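Morning. Coffee machine broken again, so started the prediction first thing and wrote up yesterday's gels while waiting. Chain of 227 residues, entered below exactly as on the submission form.
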Amino acid sequence: MAGKRRRFDAEFRAGAVRIVKETGKPVAQVARDLGISPYTLHNWVKLNAVAPDVLRCGDVTQIDTAEGPLYLATTEDLFSRRMLGHAMSAHHDAALVVASLQMAATVRGEDVDGVIFHTDRGSEYTAAKTAAACRALGVVQSMGRVGCALDNAAAEAFNSTLKVEFAHRQTFTTRAEARIKAATWIADFYNTSRRHTANDGLAPITFERQMAQARRASTAQLRAEVA
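Came back before lunch.
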């Protein structure tokens, strides 16, 4: 008779992924230490970026103004939930997505070769212009299944946060007003102050800094042990 399949609660899964993030150890080693299958841990890690600039997601959402809709394209780092790139326009097209991607590349010092960019299959992401921009940057496109919002849940979560905590709390007379206020909210609140459950209650930039410190400490300890 086949053995029962082990079940792991969310806290255990999150803790296992956090060990991989903080120590940088191979998945197989962490799995062995925890007494679980490397295949199982690999699947958990695959749904989480284990370091900055590994996996990003993007989406386009709408902010209503008296002048008409303002479209916002975003590029989010899934390691820290930091919003690296954003662009806004009255037009919902590939140019908007490309501008967001280019901003994200600039924020990270243009070193984005090999970064995975996950989105839905909206026309702005399947467009030749977006594909060409990704190739030029060295970004690898990944797209979710048709009609499955869960495939891009992190981007959808940001859109919800933006609307509930920012856009729906005020009115905008012009697109220019909405653009300035949205950019300020992202830079001065969301990235620097807004706590996130995926970051152990830390803001994105704070989380990135703490993880960098933890990795440096772990590397120093490993070097001391083998010295």
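The chain has nine helices and five strands. Going to sketch it on the whiteboard this afternoon.
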